[in-house]
């Protein structure tokens, strides 16, 4: 690729970022310069997603953020990104969500005077024990334009005294990403599970995988539910189970690894209940119109709970009892409940904001 100073750099580093920024990248067209930080890079977590989503491979791939701790990731990411932007200027930088790549991308751009567009801005858990919350607050202080998914996110930003003209209510790109993935989902037969109550689970957050007791709690509840449980296993979870001697518990579940986004959603469509600590799944469940138990201390997505799709089950609550209760309920009303995350045109709206901001700078 020939780099142009009118390019809009889209900085990403994890699977959810690839999924959620795909529609923005497509809408940017030739203006997009996709920069992968390498925060997560293997075929299971990143490689295949670019091709699956029809956006090709990244234009730039960094190396310093792979396989190191959080502080090293962010510092290395800032250094590499700053060096790239200094050598190959860009008109604007787009970052998404709350990952270490998001923080590094926003900081590197800001230090060089490049305007920053924050996608999925304004999420707040008000739990500073979450690394993601710190990343959200850092980027919130840096971004030039805040693309908020919901009215609640807008209110959070206004409460932090951000000027209204720097906030745009765009909806969440997860809506179009989920709809597109469902449309291209492979035959459900390939992913068929045994008849009976079906649970699809995915666990990967540090609060559940860095603590052996927390991970054991979740695995034990899934096993004791005596339902047909499919665990979409994140590499972090597999590694944690091995480290804590919980591999035998994993073997009692139907573990699937390396699932693509469409593959995961094909399984989710068959499930009666989802159990997860994922932020993205809290949004996707509103498009799938499925119930979800959120296995976390807190959530930055209260809209999913308020709309009736999700319920928070913190460590102080009995997860097994929550699973049994959810499986015993009728969730037919969710089929008539709209997603609180927008109309499916967020990617286009965000791309236009980034282009306008970048053009104003270049001029």
From TrEMBL:
Boundaries of every UDP-N-acetylglucosamine 2-epimerase domain copy: 32-353
Keyword Cell membrane: no
Matching Pfam families: Epimerase_2
Signal peptide annotation: none
Domain of life of the source: Bacteria
UniProt keyword list: Isomerase
Gene3D superfamilies per record: Glycogen Phosphorylase B (3.40.50.2000)
Entry's family note: Belongs to the UDP-N-acetylglucosamine 2-epimerase family.
Name of protein: UDP-N-acetylglucosamine 2-epimerase (Non-hydrolyzing)
Organism: Leucobacter iarius
